[in-house]
Amino acid sequence: MSSFGVSSFVQNNIALIVAAVASGILLLWPVISRRGKEVDTMAAVQLINYKEALVLDVREGSEYASGHVPNSKHIPADKLEQRLQELDKFKDKPVILIHRSGANTSGKAGSLLRNQGFQHVHNLAGGFDSWQQANLPVIKK
To answer: For this UniProt entry, which segments traverse the membrane (predicted)?
Structure first.
């Protein structure tokens, strides 16, 4: 095929090519846009037990009071920026972010932590709901 043939093909099929590229980008967007790692409950337990991970619960106070991971630190997502100094000693440790059902709010919290120099930020896949479904320990206040 000559260069004229390729050029002609592109011109005749530009809409198809643009649609194919756009759909490829849309398919890959969740992978590209998620800078933090998502961990399942088994990986979270491993990080807690063997890497001394901080479990940071970013849910609202009433959600946290109704049940939370043992030894977790509670800072609601909307207060995280003002309370970052409380977490400075954990910058080199894994941090597992917990929200009610996943990376909704914890995604924003994770971006904030990474921008502040936290190296090992993870979102708990499925959030606190997945922790409960796995029948892992829960403390209720």
So the answer is: 12-32
Task: For residues 66 and 28, state if they share a domain.
Answer: no
Q: Are 27 and 48 contained in the same domain?
A: no
Classify the C-alpha dihedral 97-76-63-49 as positive or negative. positive
* pLDDT digit string, tens, across residues 2-54: 566 778 887 888 888 888 887 877 776 655 554 458 899 999 999 999 999 99
pTM over 0.85: no
Q: Which residues contact 17 (CB under 8 A, 6 or more apart)?
A: 10
The span from the CA of 35 to the CA of 94, in Å, is 15
Using the Cα atoms of residue 56, residue 50, residue 71 and residue 132 in order, give the sign of their dihedral. positive
> Which residues on neighbouring strands pair with residue 54, listed in sequence order?
95
